[in-house]
Amino acid sequence: MLSYSLGRLAVFATLGVFPVALAAPAVQADPCARIAGKAFAPPADALACMKSFPFNETLRQNVLSVVSRVFDFYTFEDYYLNSPAPFQDSTTNIRADLDRINRTRYQTDFDFNKDLYDFTTQLNDGHTRWFPDCYTQFQNILPAPIVTLEENGEQSVFVAPDAVEFISLLGTNYTSFFDSTLHFDWRRLVGAKVLEIEGVPAYDYAERVARTQSGNYLDLGVRVNSAFSSYRISGTDYSQRVGDIAGPAIPVQETLALTLVPVNATRAETVRVPFLASYAGESFKNKEEFWALNCAANNETNGVDFKNSSQIENQQAKRIQKLAKANVVDISKKVSVGLPTQFQPTLPPVNGSEGVIKSYILSDKKTGVMFVGSFEPDDFDGFQTDVQATVTHFQQEGVSQVLIDLTNNGGGFVCLGHFLHAFLTGTKSLGDFPNPGFQSTNRANPLAQKILASEIALGINSDISFYAPDNWAFVSNDTQMATTHNYMSPPSSRQINGETYVESQRFLDVCPFNVDIPEDPPFDPSKIAIVGNGNCASTCAMFSTLMNERHNASIAVFGGKPGLLTQFKGMAGNQVLEWADIDSEIKTANLKDDPLAPPDLLVSGDFRHNWRTAYSFLDENTPIAYLSELPHSRFAYTADTYNNPQNLWTFA
After folding, report:
1. Whole-angstrom Cα distance, residue 293 to residue 329?
2. Cβ atoms of 483 and 459 closer than 8 Å
3. Which residue of 362, 423, 476, 592 lies most exposed, with the fewest beta carbons within 10 A?
């Protein structure tokens, strides 16, 4: 990878569009060399490295051209002009924001990318964000993760009671910075009650972070919960999120001022707690290598023409059919910290718990728990057989009610959410609408219509294309479309906030299930309940919405800011396309030279977007993303439940 990237570096220098081609004064030390080879660095040092690349107009125009033209495919653009309640804090004019970014004078490449990153983050749609690889390799981590807990009947903000066990898992490279370099006693802060953060009430600061940094979720209440530390499954292992207050994505803060009352103290004090930035990118020795390895476009940045035989073979080696995904990107997973073992479940796992689902039978012997950490397993078919194995085990042991934990589930394969919904409720319960998913559309902009028409003419199918008609079924009879059916001819149009929105005809997902769906539900659907913290995104949000809208499942949300309404679902799009995905669709359709097509990116990054809309069963004219659906119950976390899933399940 180094030789390839350094080769691109030389090309950029030749073209005069590579920022580091402008040589620094000989007397100026290389700020990237200062932190080379380190897993952790002071935020100021990390920031100095990232800010060492001068602003370059050619790169701005390249990135903004890609972003602007991909926004043409974005299904929710017109909603942002006047976002409906209770999501109105996301209201903005996307095109005006892009124009501002295009006119702003920046000193460094970092400043430009940080502005674009912040703008897309504050859309609060985790499906639609700009991730510049150059500047998302660092994450700030505070040795005082922040939680919201109920104590003596009152909810307050605290430094996490398990902070010592949790933070120690980062290793001595992290803790020694505070212990030996700074001589900062972070351990004495454990369990302290936090009154203010940066001079404002603690919950208000959490809301400030939710409005400016958290992103990913349209609902403000859900984003506030993301600000706090909580348990999750990362990969196939139990983990604990640092939270957005103590673990912001880009290291622009050096310290955080906490006004707190330590355990066994009576008086408040203000402590300025230092951050330390973790680095998860490629190892580098100097500024030039940092750019080459993290910032320059590489052979995976842009899309490919899947008609190329080698590309088809590569795709088929992964899977015969391209599989739709709906997920959010949690940058904090780059530095995944395990959940301390003493807080992990002690119950024996049941069959089917080797992957992203962890399942148990509680001590009452009648309650089965499925902690669905993700819908994005390494093994698509294995997820289905795991569900089957777990449900069979539950039935054999006499389980009569099921609790599903969706805490911090970031989504994944769309069809796996549909599968879990159908398997738990049975085909008979689906009635006159037998498809286990939602009615869906994509945006029928002029280039999208050209892509679909070209792929039909070229005989392209779902093996290599998401636009191919055989990905979808007709709403009228749930039968698969022929590869010759143009579902954008004619398109449909309607008015959204005064703008004419043009979309495809409605369609349904065609899902490759490898496990037979039972006709009758394995459990009484009224005995299936869902718990979580609202940080349930994309496919997870679709699954919980299906369970709510079609089966009225009981749903409870834990945590959040007292008095602030919190949805049970995070961002509920229908399918995400990464930049390389939409670029591949354009190239495969022979349309890369079309004047509407975006250019290849010159830098390593991803501008993903929400490509499909799912429509609610409760209001077929409203996307589920914009339909307010509140949980049936709200509970505060306690010191016993915020990081201990088994205790939470027992309480629930």
Report:
1. 21
2. yes
3. 476
Sheet containing strand 138-141, edge to edge, reads: 40-41, 276-279, 138-141
- Distance CA(296)–CA(538), nearest Å, equals 30
Residues of the chain with pLDDT > 70, as a percent, come to: 93
Among candidate residues 605, 236, 643, the one with its CA nearest the CA of residue 412: 236
- Coil, strand or helix: which one is 368? strand
**Nearest-angstrom CA–CA distance, 544 and 546:** 5
Predicted confidence at residue 311, as pLDDT, reads 60
Residue 195 has pLDDT above 80, yes or no: yes
> How far apart are the C-alpha atoms of 186 and 188, rounded to whole Å?
6
CB-CB contact of 548 with 617 (8 Å):
no
pLDDT per position as a tens digit, 447-457? 999 999 999 99
> CA–CA separation, 42 vs 311, rounded Å?
43
Rounded Cα distance, 484 and 461, in Å: 9
Using CB atoms within 10 A of its CB, is residue 262 exposed (0-12), middle (13-18) or buried (19+)?
A: middle
Instruction: Give the mean model confidence (pLDDT) for residues 28-57.
Output: 96
CA–CA gap between residue 375 and residue 527 (Å, rounded) = 22
Q: How many helices (H) and strands (E) does the chain have?
A: 18, 28
Residue 16 has pLDDT above 50, yes or no: no
Q: How would you classify the pairing of strands 554-558 and 633-635?
A: parallel
- The answer to whether the predicted template modeling score (pTM) of the entire model surpasses 0.90 is yes
pLDDT of residue 309: 62
Q: List 338's β-bridge partners, or say none.
A: 239
- Alpha-carbon Rg for the chain, nearest whole angstrom, is 25
Q: Strand 528-532 to strand 554-558: parallel, antiparallel, or no bridges (unpaired)?
A: parallel
Phi, psi of 461 (to 5 degrees): -125, -170
Give dist(CA 550, CA 273) in Å, integer. Answer: 48
Answer whether residue 579 shows pLDDT above 90. Answer: yes
Three-state DSSP class for residue 342: helix
Question: What is the C-alpha to C-alpha distance for residues 223 and 561, in angstroms, rounded to an integer?
Answer: 10
312 confidence band (pLDDT: 50, 70, 90) = low
- Segment 243-265, tens digit of pLDDT: 999 999 999 999 999 999 999 99
What would the DSSP string read from start to end of 535-583? -B-THHHHHHHHHHHHH--EEEEE-S-TTS---S-S---SEEE-HHHHH
What is the average pLDDT value for the chain, to the nearest integer? Answer: 93
End-to-end CA distance of the chain: 49
pLDDT reported for residue 5: 38
Nearest to 570 by CA among 119, 124, 13: 124
The helix (H) or strand (E) run that includes residue 96 is helix 94-103
Token code pair at residue 528: 């299936």
Average pLDDT over residues 44-50: 97
Residue 397: helix, strand or coil by DSSP?
coil
Per-residue pLDDT tens over the stretch 400-432: 999 999 999 999 999 999 999 999 999 999 988
- Closest to 407 (Cα-Cα) out of 378, 365, 369: 369
**For 308, which DSSP code?**
S
Rounded average pLDDT over 35-60? 97
Residues 609, 74: contact at Cβ < 8 Å? yes
Mean pLDDT of 484-502: 97
Structure tokens at 617: 């069963």
Residue 88: partners with Cβ closer than 8 Å, 6 or more residues away: 82
* Number of Cβ within a 10 Å radius of residue 188: 13
